[in-house]
From TrEMBL:
<dbReference type="InterPro" id="IPR029066">
    <property type="entry name" value="PLP-binding_barrel"/>
</dbReference>
<protein>
    <recommendedName>
        <fullName>Pyridoxal phosphate homeostasis protein</fullName>
    </recommendedName>
</protein>
<feature type="domain" description="Alanine racemase N-terminal">
    <location>
        <begin position="9"/>
        <end position="226"/>
    </location>
</feature>
<dbReference type="Pfam" id="PF01168">
    <property type="entry name" value="Ala_racemase_N"/>
</dbReference>
<dbReference type="GO" id="GO:0030170">
    <property type="term" value="F:pyridoxal phosphate binding"/>
</dbReference>
<comment type="function">
    <text>Pyridoxal 5'-phosphate (PLP)-binding protein, which is involved in PLP homeostasis.</text>
</comment>
<dbReference type="InterPro" id="IPR001608">
    <property type="entry name" value="Ala_racemase_N"/>
</dbReference>
<feature type="modified residue" description="N6-(pyridoxal phosphate)lysine">
    <location>
        <position position="34"/>
    </location>
</feature>
<keyword id="KW-0663">Pyridoxal phosphate</keyword>
<comment type="similarity">
    <text>Belongs to the pyridoxal phosphate-binding protein YggS/PROSC family.</text>
</comment>
<dbReference type="InterPro" id="IPR011078">
    <property type="entry name" value="PyrdxlP_homeostasis"/>
</dbReference>
Amino acid sequence: MLIDQYKLVKENVKAACEKAGRDPKEVTVIAVSKTKPLSMIEELMDCGVMDFGENKVQEIMKKYEEIKSPVRWHMIGHFQTNKVKYIVDKVALVHSVDSVKLARQISKEALKHKIQVPVLIQVNLAREETKSGFMEEELFGALEEISRLPGVLVQGLMQIAPFVENPENNRVYFRRMRQLFVDIKEKNFDNIAMNILSMGMTNDYQVAVEEGSTMVRVGTGIFGERDYNK
């Protein structure tokens, strides 16, 4: 059953927190439901799970309209500025703000809807060409610009670490992200809060939690392998 897989992830998070001397209540598990049918989401909902992650705008829109009761949708994937208007009022958190241009568009749509949009700033610490996000040396300048945008509430940072066979290989990236998170918090930027550190996926979330993650994004570990033909 799906709930058993979810509970196993929660138990692993708890064990990682205990190892690091942290409170498990500090960590939110995002069930990454991309490509998965609504029935699987609702099965978890029936057991009290509320946080679900999607990486495509059209999939959030479809599931948002069809879901039997509201959940907290997390936009975790890269998306174009022309898609902002479709989800800005539907998501609890945008994890993947990877450019000032995207932040400006979120601000524009937030003002239209008269809402505040919580976002995370995506950082590409490993400098992978296939992934989006700010390079470390760009981060503070970008935060200064984004902090001045009305309707955009920066709540923290997000990272997609490299895919590795041994999760220990990503510890260096998680540790550096945690340090950036602390450094930004100490700078006290106006309108910038460092409350959320979103890092860690199915293959490495336990190491991420040990290094300070407050949100892990787990798909395969809960739902099984994804069908990309859907």
